[in-house]
Amino acid sequence: MPFKVDLHIHTNKSDGALSPIQIVNKALKHNISVISITDHDTVEAFPEAVEYGKKLGIEVIPGIETSSSINSQEIHLLSYFFDINNKSVADFLAHFTIERKQRARKILTELQNLNVNINIDDVREFSGNSPITRPHIAQAMVKKKYVSSFGDAFYKFIGDNGPANVKKTFLPVDIVTQIFHSAGGLVFLAHPVNIKEDDIITLFGQGIDGLETIHPMLSPSRSKVLKSIAEKHSLPESGGSDFHGGEKGDESNFGKYYISQKKLNYIKNFL
Fold it and tell me: Among 63, 91, 127, 186, fewest CB within 10 Å belongs to which?
C-alpha cells in the first residue's frame, strides 16, 4: 500500500464542505498518512485538525492557499510549514479577511442590481463564521431558487466573467513569498495549467520554492512537463486532490491525487 501525502485540501473554514475533523477522518479512511489543509486565506482549521490528527496517527502540516498574479493572470500559491502565529502572516490574513468581506458585499450589491435579492444573512447561513466566498453565495442563491444549481450560479452570475463578479485584489508574488518565508515556510505555485515555462522561471526569481505537479486539473502530459521543470531546477514538488466536497462533486479525487513520502522528505530538505 503506497504512503499517501495530500497537500491540497479545503475545509468548511473556507470553501470546502467538511469540517477539519471530518477531513482527518476521511484521510484515515483513504489511507492517507499526511495531509495539509490549504484553506483560502485562513489557517483557522489547523489547530483542530493537527490535534485530532495526532489521535489518529495522521500528520497535519500547516498550509494555506492564497492568490497573486503574473502578467495580469491570477495564480494561486500554496504555502506550507510556516508558523501560523507569525505576526506577518497574521497581518496578511487580517488584510484578506477585510478584503473578502468587502468583495462579498460588492458581489451581493451587484446581484441585487440584477434582481437577485440575496443578503449577507442568507450567505452567513452557509459560511458561518468563516470568510465568505463565492461558493457560499452560490449556495444561498440555490436555496432561494434564483438558480437551479451551484454551477448555474457561477455560469450565469458570479463566475469570473459573470455580470455580478467582483475581481480580487492581489499582493505581488514577491511580497507573499517574503511573508511566508519570514515565518519559516515554503511557497509553491499551485496547479499551473496554462502558465508558460518562462513565467514559471520568473516566479522562481520572486521567491517561489517549488511546483504543484499532481492535481486533478493537470493532465498527465502537463504533469510530466511540470515535473521536468522541477527536476531541471532541483525544485521540490507538491501535489494533492484539491478536495472541497459537497457541491464541487469531487469526491472521487480524494485519495487518488497525492505525492509520495520521498517527495515529502525532499520538500522538508528545503526548510
Answer: 91
